[in-house]
Amino acid sequence: MESGARIGEPARRQHDRSFKAGLVEQSLQPGASVAVIARSNGINANLLFKWRRDHKGKTIAASKPTAAPPTVLLPVHVEPVARAGASSALEPLPTTAVGPGSRAATRGGVIELEFAGAQLRLRGAVDEAALCSVLRALRRSE
Known about the structure:
Blueprint: H1 17-27, H2 34-40, H3 45-63, H4 103-106, E1 110-115, E2 118-123, H5 128-140
Antiparallel strand pairs: 1-2
Helix pairs in contact: 1-3, 2-3
């Protein structure tokens, strides 16, 4: 395989940014023909279409709002809890009452579980009894 330009062949042309921008602006005018504009300026129409795509990509990228910070996922390991007198590890655990002024009561969150081939997403306050019923049903479907 050879490196560099071949002898007797013209080097690849480099076009100024202002030249490219001018042709792109002309081609974006209503009723403009890309083929005619390209031919009259000595370039291939496909090259002008590429410059248009590049221009539109930069315009779209510049107009996008700034991205939100990435979501941080924490590793979770769930183990069944065997309790004396409990018929299932999915029985609701005893809870402590949370008052309305408590910080825990105002926290919002999302719980996502993948279990028995299903995805379960819980937002906000979760009724433990209903959640246990859903998990039991999923366990039986395995």
